[in-house]
Amino acid sequence: MVLPVFNLWGPAAGVVVTCSFYVLVSYLYDPYGIRKYPGPFSAKFSYAWILWVGITGRRSQRIHDAHNKYGPIIRISPCELSFSDPAVYPVIHSNLFTTLSKTDHGQKRRLLHPLFTAQVAREFTPRTSSLMAQLIDKWESHYISSEAGFIWFDCVPWITLLAFDSIGEFIFGEPFGMIESGSDSVTVPTDLQLPFVMDKATDVEHYPISLAHIVSMRERYNYPLGLLPKWWRPIGLRVLRKEAQAAEIFSAFVAHRLAERLSTTVPQLENAHDLVGRFLHKSQAQSEEFRPESLVAELITILVAGSDTTRNALIAALYYLAQSQNAQRNLQAELDSHMTSCTISYTDIEVLPCLNACLNETLRLYSPVGIGLPRTVPHPGMSISGAWLAGGTTVGVPIYTVHRSAALWGGHPEEFRPERWLQGDGAQAGLDADALKAFSDGPMRCIGKHLALAQLRVMIAAIFKRFDVVLEVPESPLHIEEWFVRKATECRIGLRRR
Ligand code: HEM
Ligand SMILES: *[C@@H]1O[C@H](CO)[C@@H](O)[C@H](O)[C@H]1NC(C)=O
């Protein structure tokens, strides 16, 4: 059979013409009038560039590089501009701007904010320290033999278990038991219908599954779709069917945990030390109608937002302090003079200058969230950094880039130098502490900031009080794969009892 090759020229030409037409129309259409801004070529007429930088796991780095190449205001998609000037940050994170996420922040904040105060965070620290004691016990029994010297392992899986147990304890009043079992396996109901799950706290059928796996599968659905306009959703749902199902499994898991929590009688809610208990107490006190389904939605966000970020911040702190032995010695000297034993009293460590400088420097250099959180310009439009922008334009200032501004942080912004936060005598340096945007800023900033900082202080203090930490390969970079959160994929360390 002879292939009718010549016949393909017609369709091929058709495709080329259609594509060129599409590109030209998209380029000329430009509803927000941002064609004049420089940026990567394909971003001028398509979402290809932002999708590509997103799924390669290098978004913050690539946008940072694009700013270095094209300038302080760049177009990163047909409807979005990125600003590298830190002075723009407070402007677009002010009350005027709305977020692109569909959740009703106002409502959520009103109910949840009082459950995330600095005092609540402080009261939670004894639980963090008992989880740390458990983790350190595990490390010592698993790895540390009687002989002196370092033992070597990848800390990422362990810190993952710690972060899940810790958020489980905070939300439901008890850890998931992951450090104890050395595994992130949880049970999920076989039937994923939420009303069904909520009705039957005890006798639903279950099967075991890895929580880390479910959470990351869910993100493989949410993240790429978050980069695209809404009309892509039905297509995404078809292509990423398994990933979308992971989201349902995760919801059923959280709903089931909540049902279990609600079925245990807590005689005095006013003494409840978990988020669910405090929430119930508060809605009872204010005679608010309590709808378990809406609480499930909040808990899903809190469980994910509160574990992945803290987990990666702690891994980064271990990495940088292992790499910078000098900073580690200084931290240990400070801990030795303020902690009487390995049991942590939070008041002893809360304000330690060196500990806080190490923590701030980790959050600056690593920044678990690195992207410019997208905000929408209010109607009818306004001028930002000298540029007139139409209402509806999406804008963002990448946190990663703000945290690397030499103007803000002085010399060597790419290096881990906790001393930039300190003066010679340990007092605070002339840095603008407001410039640290790891938790973002403004009305939609992170609600878990106090909790995260308190936990991280306890975790870092517990580890470095007990161990000397080194990197297995001292020169190795920290391998990061970025989704919404920048995640460390592996971090092999050596521990030696001090
Ligand atoms: C080092 C740790 C953490 C970092 C770096 C971090 C960072 C952030 C950032 C940058 C945002 C976005 C704010 C915005 O859109 O303007 C955010 C939102 C949020 N964070 Fe955190 N966070 C951390 C820990 C936590 C913890 C421990 C919790 C709770 C237990 C938490 C709960 C939340 C919630 C509920 C939101 C709002 C999400 C939404 O409205 O969709 N975060 N966080
Ligand atoms: C760490 O950063 C915060 C701002 O996020 C600041 O208030 C605090 O003083 C800093 N700590 C040190 C030791 O510089």
Task: Name the features.
single chain; about 500 residues; alpha+beta; 5-stranded mixed sheet; 14 strands; globular; binds protoporphyrin IX containing FE; oxidoreductase
Describe the structure.
This protein has 498 residues and is an alpha+beta fold. Helix content is 51%, strand content 12%. The chain is built from 20 helices and 14 strands. The strands form five sheets. The chain has a five-stranded mixed beta sheet with strand order 1-2-10-7-3. It has a three-stranded antiparallel beta sheet with strand order 4-14-11. A two-stranded antiparallel sheet has the order 5-6. Strand 1 (73-77) and strand 2 form a beta hairpin. Helix 12 crosses helix 14 and helix 14 (292-323) packs parallel to helix 20 (449-466). The radius of gyration is 25 Å and the shape is globular. It starts with 8 loop residues before the first helix and ends with a strand. Bound molecules: protoporphyrin IX containing FE and 2-acetamido-2-deoxy-beta-D-glucopyranose (NAG). 2-acetamido-2-deoxy-beta-D-glucopyranose (NAG) binds next to helix 17.
